[in-house]
Fold this sequence. Notes:
By secondary structure, the protein is of the alpha+beta class. The protein folds into 6 domains: 29-216, Immunoglobulin-like (Sandwich), CATH 2.60.40.1730; 331-464, Neutral Protease, domain 2, CATH 1.10.390; 472-559, Immunoglobulin-like (Sandwich), CATH 2.60.40.1840; 589-663, no CATH class; 665-751; 767-881. 40% of the residues lie in helices and 21% in strands. The protein contains 28 helices and 30 strands. The strands form 8 sheets. A 7-stranded mixed beta sheet has the order 5-8-3-2-11-14-13, with no helix packed on it. A 5-stranded mixed beta sheet has the order 16-17-18-20-19, with helices on one face. The chain has a 4-stranded antiparallel beta sheet with strand order 9-10-15-12, with no helix packed on it. Tryptophan (TRP) binds next to β19 and α2.
Amino acid sequence: xxxxxxxxxxxxxPHLADAPPPPTQPPVIRxxxxxxxPWTVPQVRMDFRLGLAETVVRTELDVARNPQxxxxxxxxxxxxxxxxxxxxxxxxxxxxxxxxxxxxxVTLPGDAHTISIVTSxxxxxxxQLMGLYASGGMLCTQCEAEGFRRITFFPDRPDVxxxxxxxxxxxxxxxxxxxxxxxLVGEGTGEDGTHWAEWHDPWPKPSYLFALVAGDLVAxxxxxxTMNGREVQLAIYVRPGDEGRTDHAMQSLKRSMKWDEEVFxxxxxxxxFNIVAVSxxxxxxxxxxxxxVFNTKxxxxxxxxxxxxxxxxxxxxxxxxxxxxxxxNRVTCRDWFQLSLKEGFTVLRDQLFSQDMGSAAVKRIEDxxxxxxxxxxxxxxxxxxxxxxxxxxxxxxxYTATVYNKGAExxxxxxxxxxxxxxxxxxxxxxxxxxxxxxTCEDFVVAMEDGAGLDLTQFRRxxxxxxxxxxxxxxxxxxxGVEVELAQATPTxxxxxxxxxxxxxxxxxLHDRASGELGSETLLLLTEGEQxxxxxxxxxxxxxxxxxxxxxxxxxxxxxxxxxxxxxxxQDDDPFARYEAMQDLVVTHLLAAVQGDTGEQSGRAAIRQxxxxxxxxxxxxxxxxxxxxxxxxxxxxxxxLAVADPGRIHEAREALKGWLARELEAEFVALxxxxxxxxxxxxxxxxxxxxxxxxxxxxxxxGNPALAARxxxxxxxxxxxxxxxxxxxxxxxxLDTPERTGKLLDxxxxxxxxxxxxxxxxxxxxxxxHPNTLSHVQALAQHPDFTLRNPNRARSLFMxxxxxxxxxxxxxxxxxxxxxxxxxxxxxxxxQTAARFVPPLGRWRRIEPVRAGLMRAExxxxxxxxxxxxxxxxxxxxxxx
Length: 881
Ligand code: TRP
Ligand code: ZN
């Protein structure tokens, strides 16, 4: 028998090397160990015989020695759970391969060869949703970061770029639509009701950008003419029945294409751009070349089932993935440590796009709110890492708010330093210089230095240092101006004890409280540990407005009087600074209240005064008003304390909300009535009206629950948009009122056929302020519609719960146990998703001792479970370490 055709089995197979026993701990991969791959793979030809339970893949690789790397005759092809059914070298069954753990090693005699490998996979058994998997009868792939190795043996690393030709064949009835990257170059019918298609992608790409989709899908089609007059065929593929819900996604795509041409000079580079919506997906979406695959959550939107927030999220994610075509695909990453090269940059690009599409000020505040509530806690906890990490065990754990959102802030600071025109020149040079390459963060910085004319020597520290810098501000009035004294310090983070000063660009203005005169803005660049600046000032009551527009991702510590904060909140010409002054007032008051300070009455009065002004101010639109009405979140408040008591924070925040609502009840009721008169359209005014309407109910629910319940029920009944319906139901779900059950049931029955809305139904109850949330979630986990196998559904219940402080931090530790049980149940099904539930428990060091002990005990219980995934093992051990 032909030995090379024998599947490798552990017993007596000559192809199994004498590998060491499997390690008890997954190995650490280090950035400094990067070496170029010894082989290039210029061309890949793949042939798929599609089936839900068995897909057979034949892959042909043209390989050649890489002149840029140290030579070796051994070619390592990564695999993950694969068995080679056949290995040919130049068409011959050469007996020159062995398995080493999951990988296939082939020893090659010459400088260039063709390797042909056959593998077989069972997509229906793939619950990890990495590689080729089945979702609702269709087949699709997810290869980033290391999923391609679950399809075939390959050098599955982003610095190996190849041109792919993909042929697939399958039963036409099951898979009427056959898609892959690039251009469709042939299709036809075969025997026994099969058909086939062949796709060719002319752009060299790493394996993580490979995609294949096969299924019963319908397309919404459109086209786009590029800046150079080329026509691009656009299609969004969804399940039959969903085709009426893709309009907003299509419009968002066309707006993104236009914007990237106008603002970044980037043109699309293929004749086809396809998007496919999939309901089982680990993340938001994926930028596969010419074939983006999306979570349905970020494609499907119509007024009856999607909120205004959902609409904005669809637009943002469509833009993000489209923008990756240049920032990620044309210029890709050399290794996964450089992930922020594509993700941070692309997040900045999608943020700037969304700023231009709607209210720039509101978008900026929303982005800062996310950064502070997700990234700041990450940066101050056990999982802190630089935007360019130095090591990992499982790369999936590093798709984080730090790499994405702080990464975007770091590039935004370069833009602030350079100004938009020079920044554009730096970006142009970067794209030009590295087109077709796998680049590093350092390459980006050098291009920005050369193209924008910046010296970023010290700035590079932002890439290597974890932790959120704190800036202390002192202001001293002098004869001819004001002296601003700034001092920066970055707290230590795991593995980084000594921190160096980073350059911090701070947009500032000096206003005068006495005259109400507003000063003009200047940019201060804090580079030292301590530094003094003198600003001219003629008035008598200077008030410093600092970090305007959130020009740097830092924590500002300033000791402003309540009068100064009230002044800034009411008068500052920078909308972010107004928001910030209000947040400061509330944070100061609540932290005092939490620490038992009883002299906080004046703080309350100042907040009431500002809030009343926000409710009355006709100079701000409702979208901004709605933003200003959002009180700082409990996680952000906890973040301000070395050790927090989540129970007290919750009580203090609810007490303030209730007091404000009682003080301003008439104003909130009037706001709700006024906003209820707005139309159901998508103008800023109509969206703003919906936003303040529900905000008013949120306050009233804390101050006058009976009234709020009546108003929310009425809003629910009158709702013609999901925004109004969900807003009302969210408020009702938190109240112990008869309306609650009826409306929850109505909502379920009305939307039971729409999975994305049923996700909302689960999430609303898990996020609720209701005192029995914990037992509600326990019951919902038994609901026939609940499953851990669908990531959206799993997150809708348990991520929502883990983000609900009063329930998660229930004093007996039941919340912690529930999340730990979820991790243990989910880990064998979908480790990538399971590991994402670890960070909430990992916060234990910053929580009061009794709860901290309970959290830690749950982490230890997970750690001792047998056969944990790499993903969960890494997150749990870092959290305990
Ligand atoms: N690159 C994707 C993005 O646009 C992220 C992503 C999608 C991903 N699916 C994934 C990352 C699966 C890891 C695993 O941000
Ligand atoms: Zn991305």
